UniProtKB/TrEMBL annotation:
<dbReference type="GO" id="GO:0006665">
    <property type="term" value="P:sphingolipid metabolic process"/>
</dbReference>
<feature type="transmembrane region" description="Helical">
    <location>
        <begin position="327"/>
        <end position="350"/>
    </location>
</feature>
<comment type="pathway">
    <text>Sphingolipid metabolism.</text>
</comment>
<keyword id="KW-0479">Metal-binding</keyword>
<dbReference type="GO" id="GO:0004767">
    <property type="term" value="F:sphingomyelin phosphodiesterase activity"/>
</dbReference>
<keyword id="KW-0812">Transmembrane</keyword>
<dbReference type="GO" id="GO:0046872">
    <property type="term" value="F:metal ion binding"/>
</dbReference>
<protein>
    <recommendedName>
        <fullName>sphingomyelin phosphodiesterase</fullName>
        <ecNumber>3.1.4.12</ecNumber>
    </recommendedName>
</protein>
<dbReference type="Pfam" id="PF03372">
    <property type="entry name" value="Exo_endo_phos"/>
</dbReference>
<keyword id="KW-0460">Magnesium</keyword>
<feature type="transmembrane region" description="Helical">
    <location>
        <begin position="356"/>
        <end position="379"/>
    </location>
</feature>
<keyword id="KW-0443">Lipid metabolism</keyword>
<dbReference type="InterPro" id="IPR005135">
    <property type="entry name" value="Endo/exonuclease/phosphatase"/>
</dbReference>
<dbReference type="InterPro" id="IPR036691">
    <property type="entry name" value="Endo/exonu/phosph_ase_sf"/>
</dbReference>
<keyword id="KW-0378">Hydrolase</keyword>
<comment type="pathway">
    <text>Lipid metabolism; sphingolipid metabolism.</text>
</comment>
<dbReference type="GO" id="GO:0016020">
    <property type="term" value="C:membrane"/>
</dbReference>
Length: 405
């Protein structure tokens, strides 16, 4: 009803970089994050890269008094790394794992093993709130970004996920590490297709790193060499929101941490935390759902994204062909060896054409190549299908946009 008091919602978002055995001073930083959350009393805490369930359990015990509701989302080989702490009741949860998430043979990156996902929770406050915590595939190299098509597929699936799950909610809140700069096509696609608003751009008051950067050279855990083209840092962690039906949401204040946490010599993570204060208020009448497709430039964004996905599709088709050809050659080699072995057996007294050990080693090598190449062929076949399916979806969306008056 009009005139109802405004709900003041304080949100904390952080990529925790808590990888067991690999992240520096992980346990100390996790304790520091828990102490800060307990002291500051945020309403919602959206955390990413909490890869150890023991770390989550420790946080849950420490925060039980001020955050009675929490949930840890499991997916992939080592987990999604996503967890949520809330002062308000969590009514339901949903996890969606992206269909594409890097390559299993890129062991030095490891995104494929993580099962990158978007985690959704329904929170019971004054208004039904859909809160999302997520992480997209990392960029690693901006000049030669081999993962851009995968990240665009993830951004598209995320946008579709929001559009289809937000119908029962009055407010949508998204926080996470999107691994995209604000001007990148993926973030423009996500915002344009869903109508989400950027808390940094909308905030009445901002305090923190210049331009809202969340990956900065001054952070002692950041690889400064990766940020050489960006002396001020980059903004890849976001809090986005939108109101649906009869509610409005405004961002009163946005803050980022700036290096070491108060009273310590270390920051929370290699990323800076993002903290937003939102005002949620009911209006006098239902204004309808905001779908975010009224922007006349959205068709250009979808076209640009579809072009990048098409480039990735062609690359995946080439990789599928190469791995398939390798599998066929390995199979032919095995067949030739089988014929040679049968010929030797049929000749009875004939001598081996070459030593038995060498023959066996060659057979094992051919078999190993056959298994590896077949696995790669199957993986890239699935990749082609996913990229082709996303390309078709974007084409249909583009057609619908172009037919609008």
């Amino acid at each position: 009803m009009e005139g109802e008091p405004t709900l003041r919602l304080r949100v904390f978002d952080l990529n925790c970089w808590a990888i067991r055995y690999l992240s520096k001073r992980r346990q100390e930083r996790v304790r520091l994050i828990g102490d800060t959350l307990r002291r500051e009393g945020f309403d919602l805490a959206l955390l990413q890269e909490v890869w150890s369930e023991q770390d989550y359990s420790d946080l849950r015990v420490k925060l039980a008094g001020c955050y009675p509701f929490s949930h840890y989302f499991r997916s992939g080989v080592i987990g999604s790394g996503l967890c949520v702490f809330s002062r308000f009741p969590i009514l339901d949860t949903l996890l969606y794992q992206y269909s594409l998430n890097g390559y299993p043979y890129m062991l030095q990156h490891g995104d494929w093993f993580c099962g990158k996902s978007v985690a959704g929770i329904g929170v019971g406050i004054t208004a039904p709130l859909l809160s999302l915590s997520l992480q997209l595939h990392a960029e690693y190299c901006r000049e030669k970004d081999a993962y851009l098509p995968h990240r665009l597929v993830q951004a598209w699936e995320l946008a579709q996920f929001i559009r289809h799950t937000s119908k029962a909610a009055d407010v949508v809140l998204l926080g996470g590490d999107l691994n995209m700069h604000p001007e990148d096509v993926g973030i423009r696609l996500l915002r344009g297709w869903t109508g989400l608003r950027d808390a940094f751009a909308e905030a009445t008051h901002f305090e923190g790193c210049k331009n809202g950067c969340t990956l900065v050279p001054d952070n002692c855990f950041t690889n400064s060499s990766e940020l050489l083209p960006f002396p001020l840092g980059i903004r890849i962690d976001y809090i986005l929101y939108k109101a649906i039906s009869s509610f409005t949401v405004k961002c009163e204040e946005l803050k980022t941490t700036m290096g070491p946490a108060p009273g310590t010599d270390i920051p929370f993570s290699d990323h800076e935390a993002v903290m937003a204060t939102l005002h949620i208020q009911r209006q006098g009448q239902d204004v309808g759902a905001t779908l975010g497709t009224d922007d006349p430039a959205l068709a250009d964004v979808v076209t640009e994204a579809r072009t990048e996905v098409s480039v990735g599709l062609r690359a995946a088709q080439r990789q599928r062909y190469s791995s398939g050809r390798m599998a066929v050659l390995a199979l032919l080699l095995l067949l030739l060896q089988a014929v040679a072995a049968l010929g030797t057996l049929a000749g009875l007294g004939a001598e081996q054409p070459f030593p038995k050990l060498s023959f066996c080693l060659l057979a094992f090598l051919a078999l190993g190549i056959l298994i590896l190449a077949t696995g790669l062929h199957l993986f890239h076949t699935m990749e082609v299908k996913m990229l082709h399916g996303t390309e078709d979806q974007m084409w249909m969306a583009l057609q619908a946009l172009q037919k609008r008056p």
